[in-house]
Design brief:
Order of helices and strands of chain A: HHEHHHHHHEEEHEEH
Oligomer: heterodimer
Largest sheet of chain A: 6 strands, mixed
CATH architecture of the largest domain in chain A: Alpha-Beta Complex
Radius of gyration of chain B: 20 Å
Number of strands of chain B: 6
Structural class of chain B: alpha/beta
Distance between the termini of chain B: 28 Å
Helix content of chain B: 40-55%
Number of helices of chain A: 10
Shape of chain B: globular
Number of domains of chain B: 3
Number of strands of chain A: 6
Largest interface: A-B, 56 and 46 residues
Number of domains of chain A: 2
Radius of gyration of chain A: 20 Å
Amino acid sequence: MPATLAALVEEGFAAPPIADAAALLEDLRGLLDEAADRATATIAEVDRPLRLPKDRIARVLACEHQSLLAREHDLNEPVVRGRVLDRLLHHHVHGGGGPAPAGPALAIAEGAFEAERDDAVLDWLLEDPPTRERIAADATAFVERLGQLGRPDPSWWPRCEDRLRVDLGREHAVVCTAQLDLVVGGAPTELPMVIVEAKSGRFGQDHRDGLFWYALLAALRHERPPAAVIGWSAYDGVGWCQPVGESVLRAAASRAADALDRIGELVRGRPATRTACRACAWCVESTTCPSAAVIDPQ
Amino acid sequence: MRVVRGVHDVPERGGDRPAVSAPDRTWAKPGNASEPRAAAIRKEATEVLRPLADLAAPVAPDAEAPWDQLVRIAEHEVDLAAACAASLAFDGEFPGWRASFAKRRLGRMVLERMRKGAIADPTTIARDVVAAEVRTSQSGLARWLAELGPGGTAAVVRDAVSFAVAARAAFRTWPPREGTRFDDLFSWQVPGRAVRLEATVDARADATRSLLVFGGLDDEEGERRDLAWPALVATLRTGQVPNDVTRIDLVAGDRRRVAVTDDVLDSGLTLAAAAVEATMAARFAAPAPPTPGRWCRRCDGASTGECDAGAAWLRAPSSTNPYES
């Protein structure tokens, strides 16, 4: 049965707060600040700050070699599908309710891209008609899934694309930014904060790790941990709510510190290791990399 | 490319700005005498800036500004001049509205409605703000908003809501102190010259003569500019020195407050002189020599190759970081 936003968020609001969260956050910030300073010790001033988006953490921990190859801003079908879902979510939350607008669902997302002047995505959507047709069909299905999810209660002050930034180390050595799909509650509302992440595919471990990182960043930014993170998939309508406890935040900090250490070593010239992982499937060296060969194509 | 900004609908950095100078309403009422400190800085600003602006169209003492020739010096020009004076020569025309440009202006309208007691949720208020803008305004922003479909409007509302909620959360007490108002533009024209200094503040509190600006990630110098510029222009405009300026980074939550001392005003005047000189050179004479640096990544001169030094900086394999920064 598809999850409803109301049920997931109410579950999140009811999550117990972390005891002595301030001390925990101070501890974790210290850990991350030290890792940031170690990682950037040899980076030239002109290349500072080092950016640490969640995808870079996932990539360097999965396969160092692939993380150096990855072109993070390239468009491809999964990326565009995800962006289309985001715009449909924004319309779902900020569109004012009422009956669905006439016309194809993809037109709603394209209207948003036009308002954002995201010409790269608009051009990409025009390049290949069969791909566009697939994305248009997905968009129609996403709108149906969003309808099943239900709208957020206005009293939660829902907002999409809430941005936050946490600077680590000396003089903003490492800058961690996040753009949250949907946030409800938080300081102005006197409700606990709950973060919602929507995915166009099935939720996997990478997505969970990414959401935990967002929980840590939100905790450091607002000096108070969010009550919960919610993952929701527009692919199957499944959602889950994870209360943000100490272990969630510690796990996220540990992964980020590990990623920073590796990045620092790579910056200092250590050869990158190759590790077979999920990313082999779309890695540009998948046919020549010896590690990729061990992945079962099935 | 020369500086060809028109006077209509030019956005402030990361936001927007009303098409013409909106008069500040209560801080210094017409006829109020200037404070001696403010009068002194006005005199000094006139002495410093007037010669630098000699190439701009001369203006008779009581004449209306020649709008088609007016040179506007705002936060954007101040920032460019501080990084690389030559970059002003490559600063193109306003590329048109987009959601991220409209965010601050619409977000401040949402905040202003909240301050006045609106009790609806931010999304409802933002949608009302957009509808009212389309209905009642003749501005370029209103015309652009009127053309948007449901997805575009939702994107605009989304950005205004996230801005307004972040700003609302940055206020430790709500409603803010009596006499606070969101969104104001201070402007001051260099006497006898078609050059106008402009500073947009996100909020002002008349009771305490405080100014508030929202800023983003920047270095120490950038933060100082954000604080000194509105302090100077507000002083020149109103004839009264603000008590303090606060800068809040809504994304990171960092906040910094400075008392408006003579040092702050001097810094503002130095910024004004650099920006006026660089803008005059870019528009009417040979641009200043370039000072290449990381800002070349955002400069059209470097990316198009019109600026040799900037293009060379972009090509130079100076990076020690294998990841994109």
